[in-house]
């Protein structure tokens, strides 16, 4: 049976890749034009095209997205979203399920991919972790976005979690920015992305992708002295929910 399914899966993977790229190339021209409108206004417009791409591609490849709200879904407060990171599918899902406007923090290395970099540099706050000055610039850009009413999405584990652990230790960056800007943190969990597309290989499968929006964590009045406790609080909230869904 596995020998029969393998060729079918290869055809499915080829089909998914072609559809992915076809939609992407359709939206590149309007995204290029939107980029002339500036980082905030132009970037916000870019996300409507990315949302179209995501809403088209996911059902086309047999992936159904289910949202689970554990707080008021009509809340319009700008948040600093912290999300677990299990798959390369996470970014594609984010543009569909995170409330607009928002910007994710992304690795600067992705800006080297031809054609895709037109989208990337207008859709994310890029960070170069090898350069202290560049990291500081990224932080200033995120703070400026938050003050414009744009939410920020950060994967606090720093990279995709390829281990058996539910979560990897969190970095300080998200919590430092939340305290500095007094922006509430909303933990979000992508429960099935690692099953749909594992971080260790390009092996997409159809099925469900559940997204859980956990209650926000307020940071009003917190200082940098509270950062370790805040980071642990958010980690515990996310880990506890993940354990409950296993």
Automatic annotation (TrEMBL):
Origin: domain of life: Bacteria
The entry's keywords: Acyltransferase, Membrane, Transferase, Transmembrane, Transmembrane helix
Spans through the membrane: 12-33
GO MF annotation list: 1-acylglycerol-3-phosphate O-acyltransferase activity
Domain annotation Phospholipid/glycerol acyltransferase: ranges: 79-193
UniProt KW ATP-binding keyword: no
Pfam family membership, one: Acyltransferase
CDD domains tied to this protein: LPLAT_AGPAT-like
GO BP term (any one): phosphatidic acid biosynthetic process
InterPro entries for the chain: Plipid/glycerol_acylTrfase (IPR002123)
Pathway it works in: Lipid metabolism
Name under which the protein is recorded: 1-acyl-sn-glycerol-3-phosphate acyltransferase
Organism: Chitinophaga agri
